[in-house]
Known about the structure:
The complex is a heterodimer of chains A (219) and B (121). With 219 residues, chain A is of the alpha/beta class.
Amino acid sequence: MNQRVQVLEHILAANQTLAEDNRKRLDTAGIFSINLMASPGAGKTSLIERTVPILAHSYRIAVVEGDIATSLDADRAAAAGAQAVQINTGGECHLDAVMLQQALKRLDLAEIDLLVVENVGNLICPASFALGTHASVLVASVPEGDDKPFKYPGMYRGVDVLIINKIDLLPYVHFDMQKFERGVQSLNPGLTTFPLSCQTGQGIAAWQTWLISRLGARG
Amino acid sequence: MHELAVTEQVLQISLDHAERASARRVVAIYLIIGELSSILDDSVQFYWDIISAGTAAQGAHLHFRRAPACFACAVCGSQSEGASWLFECPACGSSQVKLLAGDEFHVEALDVETCPSEVQT
């Protein structure tokens, strides 16, 4: 005979539980962590290269690099002065809490103040998979176009910080900043935003100040 | 999108709940997918047929219920339904719209086949 069983369980509940475990491990170790997300080529690794050398004077930094293949980004992060671990997702379009859990086992957590997790370049899937990090940071970039909040609302809705990279290209490409910001404000009112250029260094200081303030606020 | 990872979780949740109910087989699975959750039904079904093979949920029918996106305007208070109002209130044109529903992503229920209480031989 057939019987109806009520479930009402979130499909990604298992990932959420593991993400909470990751958060506990990070908190216990006194680490502040960010999940860096963006489309391919927006400047996630360039932002790491800009950020690490300056903060490395005062803080111990580790980077977990998620990529479909290769260790190119981990090599760049290590060259900038961070402890770097590469996760090759083997085709998976996002990192999930299990992958971060595995990566954390390869790091000496007692020797880390700031953990940067560079997600796979993708504006869709990473938004659905919590990792357990403290802040989700989205890197948008001017050449991608001002329509991205409208096309990828799920990503823009869920982040804590928005970086608008490559602002040095504003005079050369069509990018309506007001339209872009209107989309962002609809989805995520009051979102902390840092317009900057990893190429010229303009605006980087404000982003670093934010990171340092969060590092100082660790419990 | 990540339909394979999602489908694997649907299978795991279904098997767990079927076991708890001492069920022999999962016959049907009812999913609630919000309009704003970017999941393709056909793609989930494609993976389902492959990964459920050989399990107690093999051949279970997947029912997809799409929950519409629903918004409330912070300026005029009116409510609207449909993903097209994500950025603008249809009543007053304000961009201050708050999402009330539409990102659901749940296994709602299962139909399972339980063992007959007595099997006479």
